[in-house]
Amino acid sequence: MNIVIFGPPGAGKGTQSKFIVKKYSLYQLSTGDLLRNEIKNQSKLGTKISSIINNGELVSDEIVGDLIEKFIANDTYKDKIIFDGYPRTLDQAENLDKLLKKYNQKIKIVLKLSVSLETVKKRILERKNKEQRTDDSEDIAIKRFKNYEKSSEPVISYYNQSNLLKVINGEGSISEINSEISGIIEAI
Ligand code: B4P
Question: How far apart are alpha carbons 32 and 29 in whole angstroms?
Answer without folding.
Answer: 9
